[in-house]
Amino acid sequence: xxxxxxxxxxxxxxxxxxxxxxxxxxxxxxxxxxxxxxxxxxxxxxxxxxxxxxxxxxxxxxxxxxxxxxxxxxxxxxxxxxxxxxxxxxxxxxxxxxxxxxxxxxxxxxxxxxxxxxxxxxxxxxxxxxxxxxxxxxxxxxxxxxxxxxxxxxxxxxxxxxxxxxxxxxxxxxxx
Length: 176
Known about the structure:
The protein is mostly beta strands. It has strands spanning 2-14, 19-31, 34-37, 40-43, 47-48, 51-57, 61-77, 83-101, 106-120, 135-151, 154-166.
């Protein structure tokens, strides 16, 4: 088994340290390891996984995003000998805001998030090797949290999240 990985991270502090920015990325190259999966053991003969991340933080605002992808040609299902392919990616972004109130006895956090996922298991001839068709979905969410210090040792917290997935999560569709 050969596993190679590399990455680079850059951090920058701005506005006297009140703001922080991170830019990070890298890649992983897998050849030969075997993993236990829901369909049995699978040997990864060649998979590449590049990824990247950006994060910006200030006193009251945070923004983050990341992207990763996986390109795996001709993995081998050890129980059946079938060649499995995967071309998938994830994209995520999130914006958060926060503020204190009533002399910092209260604290409010809120934000929104977006996530997109795509997967295709077609071989070079266009035949799906694990799923019956390409799949793609995205999810949006709003979230918030309200905290209030009732005393030095007692805090009330209320939080919530509302999310919508498009399309709804489909049943697992395996060929075979």
